[in-house]
Design a protein that fits this description.
This protein is α/β, with parallel strands linked by helices and 311 residues long. The protein folds into three domains: 2-117 and 191-199 and 282-310, P-loop containing nucleotide triphosphate hydrolases (Rossmann fold, 3-Layer(aba) Sandwich); 123-180, Histone, subunit A (Orthogonal Bundle), CATH 1.10.20.140; 202-275, Orthogonal Bundle (Helix Hairpins). It has twelve helices and seven strands. The protein has helices spanning 18-28, 56-61, 78-94, 106-113, 123-147, 149-153, 160-173, 201-217, 220-229, 244-253, 257-280, 291-302; strands at 2-11, 33-37, 64-65, 98-103, 194-197, 286-288, 308-310. Strands 1, 2, 3, 4, 5, 6 and 7 form a seven-stranded mixed sheet that branches. Strand 2, helix 2 and strand 3 form a beta-alpha-beta unit. Helix 8 (201-217) crosses helix 11. It is globular, with a radius of gyration of 21 Å.
Length: 311
């Protein structure tokens, strides 16, 4: 059955050209298409330059959602994002519009496009488990195997982060961690059509460096310094943003700027490869090497029965 309203997704690596394509497509729709950003870092206010956030001028032309949701001093989770994305999509559909999901944060995308059931966090349980990790990880894995054999079979006995999370949810919720879904390696029916924009890595590497050096000219170092000096500074999750993380070593620790810049560029290139690997595992994504071909497919989806969320 159709559920919600018209929607399509544009995915791909950082610097692939997704944002420019999405903006032009939404602009030509004359307000019928609104953009929902699928990005873990554009949710933070003030983190504008190195997140490639749309400019004020662009936001005056096209309606964007899921930007500037929280202060950079705050933690932000995929569950919070999912809730905000559901509300934003509902608002668009209620006004008769279409949703264009755009971004490269794969987990956030799966949470929304596949409508994941995300288990809650149980911080006290997690703290108690983390206190045992250093000396008792094998016993934690055995405990998980007893409580949730399926979850244990899906992870390595040395993966402390995943073992702790599975036990946290199993103990905290009273139901097996595996009951929340088949996991990220399982792909169900197409719920929202995904169009992938692909760029050769040599060209992508050049784009990444050119873009980062342009950001420096636009004041990225000053932006990072202002964020670091603000009350509360940057949260643990905000500090993970590529580009910010590396320049913080210059701003806060006095590391040589060019070395930090080079590291940021290298990490951005590694991020692009991780993103490509993530998306290529999903057999449902339709890949295009040219923006115009991707644009034509996006238009076609939104103008066909395929352009509806399907549950």
């Amino acid at each position: 059955m159709n559920h919600g309203g018209p929607a399509v997704a544009l995915v791909g690596t950082t610097a692939a050209g997704k944002s420019a394509l999405a903006h032009s497509l939404a602009l030509e729709s004359r307000g019928d298409v609104e953009v929902l950003a699928v990005d873990a870092m554009t949710v933070y206010r003030g983190m504008d330059i190195a997140t490639a956030k749309p400019t004020r001028a662009e936001r005056s032309e096209v309606t964007y959602h899921l930007l500037d949701l929280v202060e950079p001093s705050e933690e932000f989770t995929v569950a919070q994002y999912q809730g905000a994305a559901r509300r934003a999509a509902r608002d668009v559909w209620q006004l008769g519009g279409a949703v264009l999901y755009v971004g490269g944060t794969g987990l956030y995308g799966r949470a929304v496009l596949d409508n994941f059931e995300i288990p809650a966090q149980y911080l006290d349980v997690r703290a108690a488990l983390e206190a045992r990790v250093e000396s008792d990880l094998p016993a934690l894995y055995v405990q998980l195997g007893e409580l949730d054999p399926l979850a244990a079979s899906r992870m390595e006995p040395t993966n402390a982060r995943r073992i702790v999370r599975a036990l946290e949810v199993t103990l905290g919720s009273g139901r097996p961690f595996s009951s929340y879904g088949a996991g990220l390696r399982s792909y169900g029916p197409v719920r929202v059509v995904q169009v992938g924009l692909r760029v050769d890595f040599d060209a992508l590497d050049e784009r990444i460096e050119r873009r980062f050096r342009t950001w420096l000219e636009e004041g990225l170092v000053e932006e990072v310094a202002a964020l670091a000096a603000a009350p509360g500074g940057l949260s643990r999750t905000a500090r993970q943003a590529v580009g910010y993380r590396e320049l913080l070593r210059h701003v806060e620790g006095g590391a040589e700027l060019e070395a930090c810049v080079n590291e940021a560029i290298a990490q951005s290139r590694r991020l692009a490869r991780r993103q490509r690997s993530w998306f290529q595992r999903d057999p449902r994504i339709e890949w295009f090497d040219h923006p115009e071909s991707a644009r034509e497919r996006l238009r076609a989806v939104l103008n066909s029965p395929d352009g509806f969320v399907r549950d």
